């Protein structure tokens, strides 16, 4: 059996007296794509921030490639790539300057950064903008640069928080394909999203969290077995929000 690359054991997190993660247990094998989904405020970003070493104060244990995260955070950070949904990007820089900065923080050689960045920017259609300041960029263009910055160092684990945010249809197709190919190469993908249709298509396993707890876990086929429903309906049912149509009606009643 493959040794899990990520082992999350009894993970808990509180902000003051408010407990936002409770007893999260999860093993992820190399090459797996985990879809981590849950409603707003469920605890997805908190889990991710702990996983990438941004939040050090948590209960339980996380092992990455068998090593405890707490004691090996600097080394482990180099093996993880993170793409946040809304990153503070240094707008006064060009994509190339920004990627050069990020790559050097990861200990990469300048010529390798330039080579990879050029190729990746080019394939995202950003070649004409490579040396333009990013303050003129659209949200989607920035998101493409963020995606590249999260993977340029060729990490073993890639954590994506709503990576498709702001991307146009073609870019969405391309990123889905990139995610699948990275997984086939053995990279492990931890994919947080609200876009159920995409989660359903790209993930090997889906983990649904609500109020800081895992409430369902399995392949999409397993989750759907009992209900025969789409992931969106399963999500609504399990998180107790089956009356969304009523809520939408009530929302619009405000105009009356
Ligand atoms: N720094 C913080 N201090 C206090 N409470 C926080 C902090 N960060 C998050 N929370 C709370 O923790 C809970 C989980 O938040 P988190 O951002 O992890 O959820 P999420 O699932 O990522 O939500 P979303 O889909 O809206 O991004 C929420 O109730 C949130 O208000």
UniProtKB/TrEMBL annotation:
Lineage: superkingdom: Bacteria
Keyword Ribonucleoprotein: no
ABC transporter domain span: 6-236
A GO molecular-function descriptor: ATP hydrolysis activity
Keyword list, A-Z: ATP-binding, Nucleotide-binding, Transport
Signal peptide (from-to): none
Alphabetical list of SUPFAM superfamilies matching this protein: P-loop containing nucleoside triphosphate hydrolases (SSF52540)
Name under which the protein is recorded: ATP-binding cassette domain-containing protein
């Amino acid at each position: 059996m493959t040794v899990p690359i990520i082992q999350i054991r009894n993970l808990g997190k509180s902000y003051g007296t408010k407990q936002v993660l409770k007893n999260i247990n999860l093993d992820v094998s190399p090459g797996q794509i985990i879809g981590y989904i849950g409603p707003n405020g469920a605890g997805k970003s908190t889990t991710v921030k702990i996983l990438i070493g941004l939040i050090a104060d948590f209960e339980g244990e996380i092992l990455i490639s068998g090593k405890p995260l707490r004691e090996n955070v600097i080394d482990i950070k180099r093996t993880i790539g993170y793409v946040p949904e809304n990153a503070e990007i240094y707008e006064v820089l060009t994509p190339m300057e920004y990627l050069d900065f990020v790559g050097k923080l990861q200990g990469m050689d300048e010529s390798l950064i330039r080579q990879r960045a050029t190729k990746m920017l080019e394939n995202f259609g950003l070649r004409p903008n490579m040396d333009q300041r990013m303050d003129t960029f659209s949200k989607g263009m920035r998101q493409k640069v963020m995606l590249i910055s999260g993977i340029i160092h060729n990490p073993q684990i890639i954590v994506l928080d709503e990576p498709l945010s702001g991307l146009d249809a073609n870019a969405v197709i391309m990123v889905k394909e990139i995610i699948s190919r990275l997984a086939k190469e053995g990279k492990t993908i931890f994919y947080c999203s609200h876009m159920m249709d995409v989660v359903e298509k790209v993930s090997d396993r889906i983990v649904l969290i609500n109020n800081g707890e895992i409430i369902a876990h399995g392949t999409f086929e397993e989750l759907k077995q009992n209900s025969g429903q789409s992931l969106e309906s399963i999500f609504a049912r399990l998180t107790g929000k089956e009356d969304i149509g009523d809520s939408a009606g009530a929302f619009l009643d405000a105009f009356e």
